[in-house]
Design brief:
alpha/beta, Rossmann fold, 10 helices
Length: 272
């Protein structure tokens, strides 16, 4: 077996705005420091992108419209298309890609999987997410309850899936947002398996409950949430952070296990 470390590219899509998610992704990647090394690329803020030599790509959430036509967009989409084409043509070693929230929306729009549009109001908090039939058997969500809970923070959404496009590309819908019987809005798609190697979530599986609790106990951040969403939303979110069956489990199972699986597959390919 080669001694070369697995290489992880973390694509920062936050456009130079401070964000807890990027820290969480980096912390999870550092869990694998014995076998992997990671590097952060400031995609939207500084037009930094990795080449295709990395093994695992984790693309973060971010602010603003996922339909934004910034100078970063063609570079980012070209990279993603190269990785997709590489996986389609390669018979051995593959490239692994995990897309979070903003990145997920960008790629769902690029692949024309459905309609990307603004929400009527911001979805924010620790919210229930329901598995689809495919999601109940997919390894990405294995071990999670149905519904499971995750951090949701978005002004945009993927709805109205184009099922023929899903079928033609070999993609599957893994989860949907909470059931809202009091409104008639269509439920957003919350997770997609694009391929064996590429997955994405519209929620934030990287959210670290310990770090998040410390962040939102800060008076400035606490008041921002209360002023925007109300004290009841703040208290509900804080109560759920400590629950071992909610984001504690989601944080432990989704992204770390995805990286672990990717490393396992890549290691097999290096040995063979």
């Amino acid at each position: 077996m080669q001694n070369k470390k697995i290489r992880i590219a973390i694509l920062d899509m936050n456009n130079d705005e401070p964000n807890q998610g990027l820290r969480c992704i980096a912390d999870i990647a550092h869990m694998f420091n014995d076998v992997a090394e990671s590097k952060i690329f400031n995609v939207r803020g500084n037009l930094e992108l990795p080449d295709t030599s990395f093994d695992i790509y984790i693309s973060s959430g971010g602010p603003g419209s996922p339909l934004e036509k910034g100078p970063w967009r063609p570079l980012y989409l070209d990279l993603m298309q190269q990785l997709w084409d590489y996986n389609k043509s390669s018979t051995d070693q593959k490239k692994y890609v995990f897309l979070i929230c903003y990145s997920f929306q960008v790629m769902c729009d690029y692949f024309k999987l459905g309609t990307i549009k603004p929400r009527k109001s911001t979805s924010f908090g620790i919210l229930p997410i329901h598995k689809t039939k495919d999601g109940k058997t997919d390894r990405l969500l294995k071990g999670l309850d149905d519904p499971f809970f995750a951090v949701d923070s978005r002004d945009w959404q993927l709805i109205q899936p184009r099922l023929k496009v899903f079928k033609d590309k070999g993609c599957s819908i893994l989860s949907l947002e909470k059931i809202r019987t009091h409104v008639e809005y269509e439920r957003a798609i919350m997770a997609v398996r694009f391929s064996e190697e590429v997955v994405g979530t519209q929620f934030h599986p990287e959210a670290d409950p310990i770090g998040m609790k410390s962040y939102f106990l800060n008076d400035i951040n606490k008041n921002i949430v209360i002023n925007n969403f109300g004290e009841a939303k703040y208290n509900d979110m804080m109560d759920k952070m400590d629950d071992p069956d909610k984001i504690v489990k989601t944080y432990a199972l989704i992204l770390p296990r995805y990286i672990e699986h990717a490393i396992s597959e890549l290691t097999k390919q290096l040995i063979s």
